[in-house]
Automatic annotation (TrEMBL):
Protein name (record): protein-glutamate methylesterase
Family matches, as PROSITE patterns: CHEB
This enzyme's EC code(s): 3.1.1.61
Alphabetical list of InterPro entries matching this protein: CheB_C, Chemotax_prot-Glu_Me-esterase, Sig_transdc_resp-reg_Me-estase
One MF term in the entry's GO annotations: phosphorelay response regulator activity
Top-level division of the source organism's lineage: Bacteria
Keyword Transcription: no
Coiled coil location: none
Keywords: Chemotaxis, Hydrolase
Lineage: Bacteria, Pseudomonadati, Pseudomonadota, Gammaproteobacteria, Pseudomonadales
Amino acid sequence: MSQNTNPMPIVIGASAGGMAALKDLVAQFPKDFPAPVFIVNHMGAHTSGETLVRVLNESGNLTCVHGQDNQTFKSGTIYLAPSDQHMLIVKGKILITKGARENRSRPAIDPLFRSAAVAYGNRVIGIILTGYLDDGTSGMMAIKRCGGVCIAQDPEDASYPDMPQSVIANVGADYCLPISGMGALLSELVQRELPESGPVPEDIVIESKIAQRVLSDLSSVEALGEQVPYNCPDCGGVLWQVVEGKLLRYRCHTGHAFTSSALLAQQTVKIEETLWVALRMFEERQNLLVIMSEKESKKSPSSISQRATDSQIHIDRIRAMLKATDKDSHGA
């Protein structure tokens, strides 16, 4: 298939339950599908993604490959973001970066969506599928503001409805439908004749540049929002609050970015890590106090023994907090 010099890129974001959803979606693309397809599916840093590439190649008519840095893309091919790296697109090319995590993820959906909006404006078609929390909502908002099309999987059709529900609530999807109906819709949408895109809002351009540069800077984040009295749970830096309609987001000057839901989830994880360290230290302290108490002279007051007993009280409290924290630390 010859390369389309003016493509209508399709960008897709998925998380929990994504493999099955993507498999069902790509099976609907015809061999002569006239658009490039870019996918971010959340995966662990130590997961290669080769399994998903193989599954998508076996499921449909289009070739699926991992995106590579500075690779020229073409219509009729599926490009999957590689593990532990963000995938972005500029005019005609793919960029792969090791930028800071966004919404606790790398690859993350928002950077891909924003880059597509900046590069292709109203020609972009964004799709959000199954997943926890709300990665993809801000990126979909960028696509919407640039005149692109926003598609959300029907939450009742999604294994994990959080991500499509967030897009519907915060952005307002142009189309909300089960995966089974997306293939026919996309085949219609990519055939449209569109007017020239208008200018891209400056804040979307700034955030897209942050992802491309890998590092952010103070002037960039100060242009996006107001500094708030919170710290980035990943690097400890100061956070700036960005307001997008009903969506609250946070960025630090090194590039980490969170929606309020993702920030809360990551704070919970860090609290749990801190509690485990505290538990270990109290248990070590108690063990030392017990040994010291055993060596204590019988004529001496048993202050050491009492301190060991007091340590047990703290240990029990921390264990109770860990049990409560564990209930809130899942979901990504």
